[in-house]
């Protein structure tokens, strides 16, 4: 039995049932241990939840940094557009990504402040990850915007719209919103 096995079972349980619907007894059963054994690794359910959320956000951050590095030769247009479609794909294919996104919208009430702190830190990192590409495109006269930060924030507005549709709606509407908002966004920034 390891903390990683417990976190994996907790990720699934929190992702499927939310914080309130997940139980430490069910998580322990999934791992094949007694509920008390969880306390060897985590103080309580809150600690387990926050650890799983932090891991989810860190995994996503690592994925994003690696993905940007692997796609550094792409044009800014292709990189940004592909990232939007990737968000939708990851939401539907990756439990950890889906969990992190859902919990950023529906945190447990008593953990709201701690969850929002983690989410805000992640959003700041996300901005910083795309800032160099916007700065380079601006300095190369590929885009016409006030400043790189404004471009990143406008782009994040599209990301937010897609996230809302994924959490509250469905994949098809998310893709429709993506297509419409991306087209208008790009026409607004391209030279």
UniProtKB/TrEMBL annotation:
PROSITE patterns from the UniProt entry: HTH_TETR_2 (PS50977)
Chain ranges of the HTH tetR-type domain: 1-60
Swiss-Prot/TrEMBL keywords: DNA-binding, Transcription, Transcription regulation
A UniProt-annotated Pfam family: TetR_N
Keyword hit for rRNA processing: no
Coiled-coil annotated residue ranges, if any: none
PANTHER family: HTH-TYPE TRANSCRIPTIONAL REGULATOR RUTR, MYCOFACTOCIN BIOSYNTHESIS TRANSCRIPTIONAL REGULATOR MFTR-RELATED
Protein name from the UniProt record: TetR/AcrR family transcriptional regulator
Organism: Alkalicoccobacillus gibsonii
